[in-house]
Amino acid sequence: MDTHLHHEEQHLKSSDFLTDIVIGMSDGLTVPFALAAGLSGAVNSTSIIVIAGIAEVAAGSIAMGLGGYLAGKTEQDHYNTELKREYYEVEHLREREIEETKEFFANIGLSEALQDQATAEIARDKKQWVNFMMKYELGLNMPDPKRATKSAFNIGMSYVVGGLVPLSPYFFVDSPVNGLKISVALTLLFLFIFGWFKSNITGVNPWWGATRVMLIGALAAGAAFGVAKLFGG
User: Fold this and answer.
1) What is the pLDDT of residues 3-43, one digit of tens each?
2) What is the C-alpha separation between 233 and 41, in angstroms, rounded?
3) For residue 67, is it within any domain?
4) Distance (Å, rounded) from C-alpha 70 to C-alpha 148?
5) Does residue 227 fall inside a structural domain?
6) Does any domain span residue 5?
């Protein structure tokens, strides 16, 4: 029995979704954490920190989501522009496109006879030819038409979820300093866990990746707290 017939290659899927989550969650955990830490060194009321933190999470999620939406629209617009240009070249600069197609097959090692045969076969169908040139000449894959909306939602919601982590202790304590102590422990734990999963996904050493993410968050919060103490003191 040929066991190769049932071989399945393992590849990372839904990379766009994971990228959105990483972008939103990393900023969501870090920025409100730094803000809450800074305010803890400057004010004596947890209600001020909660209000400011919620306002920042709302504004940050909208800004991050809008950035994701614009990035998705830019990718789609770029693809459509190149698609129109490629159709024009296939229709009006056919000989040049044929040479470019042959050049691709030459680069992957086909003989000249096979280059001619493969090029002639592809050039019979204009749509398939254009799609071929888009992917292999320009390195562009057709983007998901809903990518911009999905990206905005994924990034925005990830930011909200991440931002509520460092703010949550301030809902249950009266002292900003006590809230900060709990927030630091909770947020650094989440940053470490987040960094661990992010590193596993991207192929980085998980211990180093998790520690690096955690240290960045701690540095940002420490700097904000120090500056607030310095100017508020």
Assistant:
1) 444 444 444 445 788 888 888 888 888 888 888 888 888 88
2) 9
3) yes
4) 7
5) yes
6) no
